[in-house]
Predict the structure.
Amino acid sequence: MIADAPLSLLAGFAALGGAAIGSFIGTVLVRLPVERSILTGRSACDSCAVPIAARDLVPLLSWLALRGRCRACSAPIGVWQPGCELAGAVIGAMAVLLAPLGLAVPAMIFGWQLLLLAVIDARHLWLPRALVALLAASGAVWLGWQCWQTGTLAPLWAGLAGGALGFAMLWSVARGYKMLRGRDGMGGGDPPMLAAIGIWVGPMVVIGTVIGASLIGMAAALLALLARRPVAADTALPLGSLMAVAAWAIFLVAGHG
């Protein structure tokens, strides 16, 4: 039985599955912004356009074997693809090892969706509405499962409250900033993303997500200053990425609430 397998073995299988999902996320990261199909068409080198053979598509291992370069033209592959694969693997393993009892699978599903939004926002400062809607929809399914398991509607009310609070918090901040400064200070996808996160985690974790994202952002700005990189009051930070990291970390430790 799967339930009787050693935890380390389950974590290993989850990491392998997560690496494969991370590979797909890396593909979406490249194709979605240029409106290429994410489901059809062979992967090809961005430099020479030579199709990538199946042996060079093994998550992480192929990148290491090729030393991060295209087999055909030796152009650098870059770190986004193996980074997504590694992050996907870590999410799978940590969900098995650290998530509260019974929440490993939801933690994986939640984490992989957040990873996709996080990397797109980090690279393109963009939160696609379709992906945010998918996160909200999967959260609604999660709420329905909890209601069925508990026999009450309490999880539904908590999720709706979390979604409403998440949207209201960031929308009011964005609105206030625009009224005071006369320009946008936040991306339009950030309030809906926090609303989708709120559906998954409930109102208390939404508040923790905002606090955690703020702390991570301040730490990132401090590191940039220490590295002597320019940081100004209007320097754009990927808030969606920061919220994704904070939300999943809290969910992983505390679940929802």
The radius of gyration is 20 Å. DSSP finds nine helices and no strands in the chain. The chain has two domains: 1-98, 128-257. The chain has a mean pLDDT of 89.
